[in-house]
Amino acid sequence: MEEKFDVTGMTCAACQANVTRVVSKLDGVSHCDVSLLSNSMKVEFDQDKVNEQVICEAVKQIGYTASVHGEKGEVKKEWQNRQDLVESDQRSAKQRLILSLVLLIPLLVIAMGPMVGLPILEGMEWMMISALTQLILCLFILFIQRHFFITGFKALMKKSANMDSLVAMGSGASFVYGLVGIYQMAYYFGVQNIEMAHMAMHSLYFESAATIVTLVSVGKYLESRSKAKTSDALDKLVDLAPKNATILRNGKEVVVSSESIRIHDIVVIRPGQRIPVDGKVVSGTGYVDQSAITGESLPVEKNVGDSVISATMNENGTFQFEAEKVGQDTTLAKIIQLVDDAGNSKAPIARLADKVSGVFVPVVILIALITFVVWLISGQTIQFALSNAISVLVISCPCALGLATPVAIMVGTGKAAENGILIKSAAILEQLHSIDTIVLDKTGTITSGKPSVQGIKVYTNISENDFISMAASLESGSLHPLGQAIVEYAKDKNMNLEQPENFTNISGRGIQAKLNEHVYLAGNKRLLEEKNIRINQNVVADLDAYASLGQTPLIFVEDQNVIGLISVADTVRSTSQVALEQFKQKNMHVVMLTGDNKKTAEAIGKSLSVDEVISDVLPQDKESVIRKLQEQGKKVMMVGDGINDAPALMRADIGVAIGAGTDIALDSADVILMKSSLLDVVTAIDLSSDVIKNIKMNLFWAFFYNILGIPVAAGLLYPAFGLRLSPMIGSACMSLSSVCVVTNALRLRYFKPRIEMEEVKTFTMHIDGMSCGHCAWLVEDALKKVPNVKEVRVDYNLGKADIDYVQQVNMVALKQAVKDAGYIPVEYKEEKKMKKIVTVDGMMCMHCVAHVKDALSKVEGVSDVVVSLDEKTATLNCTENVTDQMLSDAVTNAGYTVISVK
Question: TM segments (predicted)?
Fold first, then answer.
């Protein structure tokens, strides 16, 4: 089993290494992961061999305390408890630091004032008073900073020396040497040898002992403040959870804390309120801004039966919902837990630092002893030798080594979460930038995953409408996007669908069903070949023609005879082409996987300029494609939907689930993209690269500092240049080293995606009260001032405004802008579409069909164009502002004749 423990008393990487070493040695423990940043430990162990009490006792034996992490409660409360503990520790550290500084200043003035000519306690008669005053001030400071000595010497006695041990030894040695100096002064005063007493006074090291612990505490305080900033991203996530909520109790509304909500409670949500838990709407309606969780830019209408997500904001309307997931089971809580776990996990790049940290302190102590002995043997005084040895102890910094990696990892995973990218571990974050091959599933990854009907061919005497009705009835039992496109097309034509019998899904090929006593097949060419159904040359020609246009034709068979086909195509996301170009710039080999036939796949692949297209791939074959690429020595990333592509995602070196939205518990994916943009993959790779560069910089500084600082502190440069470091300078350097590492890692907080493509979207707001062009101008001017609104087109005759926007737009702000202009906003809604049929003369082949379709599609406000060569018609949806003349002109300019527009 795996258990989480809270560990207190750790101050540096050596502490972390000591706890890891001791717990890992226990019989039955298979894995131990200790986090210095969060003061926590995760242990995987066999309950039959070891238990929680034994683990806690083992940690206690080396000078730390461990306890089983408390039962998980409501996410905001648990996080607040954590933050309160951190703030309490910081307040305590700040108080100790201020008191120490207040006492250190007079100590330094008394000890060093005479050296710079200050008339403070100078003269023979003041020597003993000066010495005793220094002793008293030093004792107060050491008492205030006593935790260094308690934890340091306790760890030393347990053979688990850490940074506190080095500080305690350095400061303690200075203090003891100062005490010896006072005794010498007293002795020489007793024998009336004033000169020797004066010399002994110069051997007092009380200011050094006090300065060492004070400067180190300065560094630790600054370090703790900096480390607190590493969780800024988590703070923002936690703040999304509302503190209170309104629920119904005995028919009355009661305000309660969010953590007290239980499953089946009825929660009341009004405009401007955040949703506290996951649930399902039971009454009312609202428009919910889900951008913080799913990345959707427009508020989503919520009606009875719709699901609502925790931490999302209701912008308009009032509704009630039944709580279904509460506490740690909510979507927000799972996201926070995932980001927290990833931030506290270890990256492989940290292994060297961990190994060095495990032996660092004992080696430093040995170097300090050697330094002391060597300088004594060389003829230097005890004071000189001791000063150098103490400098070695206090300049050494295992903290910089220990913080080099985890701080950058925590900030990196947090920044990823801010951009809608959930990275499950530090190892994945490290590996992302080294991927050289990226495999993209076409449907739903490169394309929108919402295909539409593009062309229809009928080979029998039945009418086109009857054929569409039959095809849609068959596909009504399928969940495949291509089948659903046909169903939606029929519904738009208000066709009545029948329920098929004996429905069978044939994976990767199509479907089989019975309808009105006839047996039907619907699917691709491979399905017909397997069923030994002959396809004549006319059908083959049509299949090739549609495929060459990048469309997917579905063949329909009735009682072993081909009766028609429907061509369906998906639209490429506007961000996909930009992302593919970025992959190329990063020298990545781009592979597109698709179940489409070879011609369709190659047409799409050519338009996107991908390096390799693998077509006719069945869902169960995707995993083998990944394996073959890996056998070629490639590091492969697979990007798919996380469900249908699960085996391939698990096989890949890194599996990325795109557009996962609220489904963050996907075991198959290493990275989850909340939105559906491939640009987020680019962002994840760029972030990984920046994090690894930052870690390498930190590690270089940490190693360079210690490799350079320790020899200089030992006096290596003294014989040649007369250069040596005092213990006070050494302790200052030690404090600054860890602060520098943390500060450098915090630069990652300013990471921004290299490519921020603004996808322009449009919706329509209906407005009452406009009567003239001046009214339209006032509304347009008011709406343009709302953030993220790019363009506004107002029609006062129709009483509406078409609003182009990017990213996310606030509906409340839009409605308020209209009100401030003096008009009445009506609930915004998608613009009403009209269906029109254009009869066209002059089309001779499938290329003519493509030309007419392209011409009509370019008319602003036209969508869902379907051109039939047999019927000589083009069926389309268009907005109210599209006139018949506009449609006629588009077809005429393409070289064809319009007979009628209905």
Answer: 97-120, 126-144, 165-184, 204-222, 356-377, 389-411, 699-721
**If DSSP codes are grouped into helix, strand and coil, which group holds residue 593?**
strand
Per-residue pLDDT tens over the stretch 624-643: 899 999 999 999 999 987 56
The whole-angstrom separation of Cα 470 and Cα 705 is 76
**Which of the following is catalytic: 340, 441, 641, 670?**
441
Q: Which residues, 6+ apart, have CB-to-CB distance to 96 below 8 Å? A: 144, 145, 217
- Whichever domain contains 897, its CATH number is 3.30.70.100
CA 624: distance to chain centroid? 29
Residue type, 876: L
Position 829 scores a pLDDT of: 45
Query: What is the CB neighbour count within 10 angstroms for residue 897?
Result: 12
- Rounded to an integer, what distance in angstroms lies between the CA atom of residue 809 and that of residue 852? 36
| Residue 13 DSSP symbol | H
Please tell me the distance from the alpha carbon of residue 581 to that of residue 610, in angstroms, as a whole number. 9
Contact 339, 422 (CB under 8 A): yes
Pairing of strands 552-558, 561-569: antiparallel
pLDDT digits (tens, 9 = 90+) for 70-103: 655 555 666 667 677 777 778 888 899 899 999 9
CA 520 to CA 526: how far, in whole Å?
15
Strand pairing partners for 280?
A: 307, 322
Q: Over 195-236, what HEC string results?
A: HHHHHHHCCCCHHHHHHHHHHHHHHHHHHHHHHHHHHHHHHH
Q: Are strands 636-640 and 654-657 parallel, antiparallel or unpaired?
A: parallel
d(CA 38, CA 674): 26
- 688 close to 429: Cβ distance less than 8 angstroms: yes
Q: Does 576 share its domain with 555?
A: no
| Domain contains 62 | yes
Q: What is the rounded CA–CA span in Å between residue 536 and residue 420?
A: 50
Output DSSP code: residue 392: H
Residues 652 and 589 in one domain: yes
441 given a catalytic annotation: yes
The confidence score (pLDDT) of residue 9 equals 81
| DSSP states along 534-572 | ---HHHHHHHHHHHHTT-EEEEEEETTEEEEEEEEE-PB
Q: What is the Cα 179 distance to its own chain's centre?
A: 56
Contact by Cβ (8 Å): 669, 642: yes
Characterise 609 by phi-psi region: left (phi > 0), alpha (psi -120 to 50), beta (else): left
Please state, in angstroms and rounded to a whole number, the distance separating the CA atoms of residues 817 and 811: 10
Query: Can you read off the two tokens belonging to residue 694?
Result: 């930052």
pTM above 0.90, yes or no: no
d(CA 822, CA 772): 13
Q: What is the pLDDT of residues 633-680, one digit of tens each?
A: 999 999 987 566 778 888 899 999 886 554 554 667 889 888 878 889
How is residue 38 written in tokens? 């969060």
Enclosing domain of residue 435: 421-447+572-674
Say how far apart CA 379 and CA 708 lie, in whole Å: 25
Q: How many helices (H) and strands (E) does the chain have?
A: 31, 34
Return the exposure string of 701-715: e unless at least 16 CB atoms fall within 10 Å of the residue's CB, then b: bbbebbeebbebbbb
Cβ-based neighbour number of residue 895 at 10 Å: 11
**Tokens linked to 843:** 């089309």
Angstrom distance (rounded) from CA 584 to CA 580 = 6
Residue percentage of the chain with pLDDT more than 90: 21
User: Cα(159)–Cα(17) distance, rounded to whole angstroms?
Assistant: 12
Question: Residue 231 burial (CB < 10 Å; 0-12/13-18/19+)?
Answer: buried
Same structural domain for residues 581 and 478? no
Q: Where does a domain end: 674, 699, 714?
A: 674
- The CA-CA-CA angle for residues 22, 79, 231, to 5°, reads 80
How big is the CA angle at 655 (ends 653 and 657), to the nearest 5 degrees?
170
What is the domain-level CATH number for residue 582?
Answer: 3.40.50.1000
Q: What is the DSSP letter of 446?
A: I
